Structure of BglG family transcriptional antiterminator:
Amino acid sequence: MSKRQEQLINLLLREPGWITAGSLADLLGVTPRSVRSYIAQLNARAPAGAPAADSQTAPIESGPAGYRADRAALAALRSDSGRASTRDRLHGLVRELLEAQNGVDLRRTAERLYVSVATVEADLVRVRELLVGTGNTVQRSGSRALLVGDELARRRLVSKLAHEEMEHGSFDGEGLRRAAGLGSLEAEAFGPFKRELATQLAEQGYYVNEFASTDVVLHVAIAADRVSHGHPLAGTHLEPSAQQERLAGVVGKLASAHFGVSLGQGDLQHLASLVLTRVVASDGSAGTEVPLDAEVERAVIRAVGHAAEEYLVDIAHEDFIRRLSLHVQNLVHRAREQAFSRNPLTKSLKSTYPMIFQVAVSIASDVSEQLDVLIREDEIAYIAMHVGGRLERSRRTEAALTATIVCPGYYELHDLLRSRLDESLGPGIEVTAVETRTDPDWAGMDTDLVLTTIEPPVPDERTVQLAPFITDADIQRIAAVASKRRRTRRLTRLRGELERYFSPDAFIRPLKAKDEEDAIRQLSAPLLAQGIIDEDYVRGTIERERLSSTAFTESLAVPHALTMTARRTALSIGIAEGSIRWGEGRIQVVALAAFSESERDAFQTVFEQLVEVLSERDSLQRILRRGTDFGGFLDELVAVIDG
């Protein structure tokens, strides 16, 4: 299976509904004809009983609206095809290198796999790419290749292989075991080990990070497999703490029970350290407290204070700083060991909460500079989860809508209606007025919603007519109207300020850029010419992009600097014909944002709401289709905002 076909499968599996060949082509950077060819080839590989000619049973269904995946069939097809894929052949070569004490003869490997020596040589080039950051190297002597690295470095490489498999599909025990080459272990053991580990950690007084626990289970499995093949870790000269001793005992018993391997002191101390720095946080009970490094705490206090001031967010609280400092302390430990923690929610956090993610990037940037550590995007996502948790209460309060109930009086009918609405709608809608007359002042009602049991003279978008005794259908209609009103409220300010932020000079279509830096420089040029930004701002935008990609969705990137040093807030728009490469993916629209300190309150409005509008595929495609020039782009953007 080709890399493009794998990317196509991933896109289809993530897409909840139909998607056109043109949209898929833009996301892949190919033509619609190539997309149709890939789909025909994938459907042709379907097993007997699901012929490609029958679009209702093929893994990829076609129709007037485009293409849609049969998720189970497509995932099974990828699994079946993957066994003979280039990636699996590459992983097989890595596993050979791991086990061969005297190196691997590439000619013999080529003969055994029935491929050319040139193919194996090309695989070796990819192996060298995999080794980056693991502490391993490959030495060549003629046709023989030797892997050089200590035991921890080798385990780091096995972990990287397994994470590649996790990124290409679901993280099941069999897929993990096959990708990491853990042949001595049973796939069925992974799930029970993980569940029992979480239970015992909770019983000992720890909060368990479920997202990271799979990563620790993987490392325990790797340790068990390596030990069973005669590759244990040597003991450390450091005395383990009482916490590490307890956790080592838990891990040792579970590894013996589920994987059938007795781990030595060196392995157990290493794994206990992983548990402490990746999976658990103290709940404050005796024996679970973790001393906080003063330098880390100072760095977090400065970073949080700067982010709170720069982005006008309410996060500078003692309890938040304490929790985040403990997390950063573990993060620093992982970073210095090059043992980063994966976060499966990174993409969804970026696309759904761009403002929260931006605050996390700011904190990570400050901490990284102060403590001299590299903080990767998945680790930034964990910081974003801390920030989002702190802001959730205020976000809910801001989202509350006001409502007027219109219910002409008849015994206690209006009281029953209000009671049912309060019970069904919760804190998201606050009833601020109740009208019991048959001729209320409709024009004087200034609430977000009007919920009425009688027909209004002129219904509008905020009005919901209800039955006297409210039904489930009424509740659903109220929720739908409320959702639309919240969106309108969020976008009203953006709608009013669009013309101030955009200008015809800062609109490029088609945008032709070879990479992110090229696109940033092209879109910065008109703002430089107008004196809105300077070269320092451009350099800052490029540096921000290196910290974490500003491709917040699969179609949109919003590059910007971490500092708000523009003379005034402005946007420069670039639209690609098709798509351009951005990081590991491809995008169609680049909105370079320049923010000024005097208008910092505009950051949340522009940043979050613009990402929301342009991340909706139908809205974006409409804008791309009709916005062929600046006037058309602005008209369509306004029309989309207005609904």
